[in-house]
Amino acid sequence: MADTRIEAVVFDLDGVITDTARFHYAAWKQLAGQLGITIDEAFNERLKGVSRMDSLEEILREGGQQDRFSLEEKEQLASEKNEQYCRLLTQLTPEDVLPGIPEFIASIKAAGIPVGLASVSRNAGTVLESLQLGPVFDYIADAALIRNSKPDPEIFLTACAGLGADPRYSIGVEDAPAGIQAINASGMFAVGVGKQLPGADYLVQSTDQLCWEEIRDCFFQTLLP
């Protein structure tokens, strides 16, 4: 079966290409502790796929401090978190690419299909550089220019536009519920990695189970009348 009707595959970064969630959690936990707010790993799940400022708002609400800081002060807090996160990112190496991802992307590119990145992280470029994956992506959505965080579809629509692809004939790969909702809202075919991802058109438990041929065939089946 030809792949010509699939116009693009767009990936989330964290939890799909690599796992920097532990760094985000450590940085947020440190900042929250400074504010007298306690967060745990279960709470951190709510922050996956959510922008930096929206994540801060979630933490402040958790501690009943949402009205304590001005916008300028909140931006400073978010900046402090990001500085700590970037320090932790220096620990990343190509060995931190999740299992099966290099082979999966290679299969897509071998089919002549462009790949893009739709991450709300403003540090995506730094992460890809550490992983030595930057040249692999044909387009990387600039999170700094995205006004609406996931589950809004803006970042996926932006990635498709940057690749010159019709979302209806494109595939998104995500590990977070908010990300799957964003893919659904964009009109793309949703591939989920992990558990309990309602709305995923195709679901695997881990990245090493991603199979391009199976996903391609499943995508084409959804187009049948």
Separation of the first and last Cα atoms: 17 Å
How many separate helices?
Answer: 9
| CATH topology value of the largest domain | Rossmann fold
Q: Would you identify the CATH H-level superfamily of the largest domain? A: HAD superfamily/HAD-like
Q: Name the CATH architecture of the largest domain.
A: 3-Layer(aba) Sandwich
Low-confidence spans:
none
Order of helices and strands: EHHHHHEHEHEHEEH
Question: Largest sheet at a glance?
Answer: 6 strands, parallel
Judged by helices, strands and strand pairing, the structural class is alpha/beta
Which range best describes the helical content: under 10%, 10-25%, 25-40%, 40-55%, 55-70% or over 70%? 40-55%
Binned strand content: 5-15%
Main CATH class of the largest domain? Alpha Beta
Q: Cα-atom Rg, whole angstroms? A: 18 Å
Strand count: 6
Q: What's the average pLDDT?
A: 93
Strand order of the largest sheet: 3-2-1-4-5-6
Shape estimate: globular
Q: How many domains would you count in the coordinates?
A: 2
Can you walk me through this structure?
The protein is an alpha/beta fold. It has 2 domains: 141 residues, 3-Layer(aba) Sandwich (Rossmann fold); 69 residues, DNA polymerase, domain 1 (Orthogonal Bundle). The chain is 43% helix and 10% strand. It contains 9 helices and 6 strands; from the N terminus they run βαααααβαβαβαββα. It has a 6-stranded parallel sheet with strand order 3-2-1-4-5-6, sandwiched between helices. β2, α6 and β3 form a beta-alpha-beta unit. The longest helix is centred in the middle third of the chain and has 19 residues. The radius of gyration is 18 Å and the shape is globular. The model has no long low-confidence stretch (mean pLDDT 93).
